[in-house]
Design brief:
alpha/beta, D-Maltodextrin-Binding Protein, domain 2, 2 domains, 7-stranded mixed sheet, 5-stranded mixed sheet, 30% strand, binds adenosine-5'-triphosphate, binds zinc ion
Length: 223
């Protein structure tokens, strides 16, 4: 691939992280002209462009070198780091960004008298995060079945396809609506700036350093 002289940042095209990510970048002095197809946003001042994609694709795009950085939930980055082998291990979290806060938690049917993780032994847990859940179960020495679902995880216990779930929780409203109760927090998540372990050794590396400096200023002011 031809080396790029512009920095490319992957972010969510449409979802919870889109507006706050754009706002953060604009506070860092970056402005963009949106292209017609809305996949690509051309940076107007600095040579920094955006690629607008599904959040799940962001870690892979960085690992493959299609993008230099990404703004993505720690939950999505962490899952990729655990499940994508060497490509996953090549990524790291550069900065927490302070928005998109949620938790990856285990929830069980409200009527269950849950008091310890050992109760999950032999149970089936539905999740979209088999990597993060699997690691947590291993460190606890719990042997549970992991049922991987792409979405609508919270209805699995009612359907009888799982006994518990491991899913993202923010207010807890979805859990209550599905007669579930949060019992264990596996991960405290928020949007993060994700990138490769090492800076590219060209102008893009300098641009990333500049961006990090501005980000640190903006995040400090906000705190
Ligand atoms: P995409 O179409 O990009 O795949 P999505 O449906 O996977 O979108 P969103 O629901 O927009 O993603 O959530 C994006 C991120 O927002 C999550 O990965 C998570 O980090 C964060 N988040 C914050 N609160 C919640 C919540 N209550 N439920 C789900 N995600 C949340
Ligand atoms: Zn997604």
């Amino acid at each position: 691939m031809k080396p790029r002289d512009r920095l490319r940042i992957a972010m969510q095209k449409s979802g919870r992280l889109t507006e706050p990510a754009l706002e953060l970048l604009s506070r860092c002095g970056l402005t963009f002209r949106q292209s017609r197809d809305k996949l690509f946003c051309f940076g107007e001042g600095e040579p920094v462009d955006l690629l607008l994609v599904r959040d799940d694709d962001i870690p892979g795009l960085i690992a493959q070198g299609v993008c230099d950085l990404g703004i993505v939930g720690r939950n999505v980055l962490g899952e990729y780091q655990l499940t994508a082998g060497r490509e996953g291990a090549a990524l790291s979290e550069w900065r927490p960004l302070g928005f998109g806060r949620c938790r990856l938690s285990i929830a069980v049917p409200q009527e269950l008298d849950y008091h310890d993780a050992v109760q999950l032994n032999g149970q089936r847990i539905a999740t979209s995060y088999p990597g993060l859940l699997g690691e947590w179960l291993r460190t606890r020495g719990v042997q549970a079945g992991v049922v991987t679902l792409a979405g609508s995880v919270e209805i699995a216990p009612r359907l009888g396809t799982a006994d518990a779930i491991c899913d993202l929780v923010q207010s807890g409203g979805t859990l209550v609506a599905n007669q579930l109760r949060e019992t264990e927090v596996l991960l405290e998540s928020e949007a993060v700036l994700a990138g490769p372990q090492t800076l590219p050794a060209d102008e893009r590396g300098d641009l990333i350093e500049l961006l990090l400096k501005r980000l640190d200023g903006v995040i400090q002011v906000r705190e």
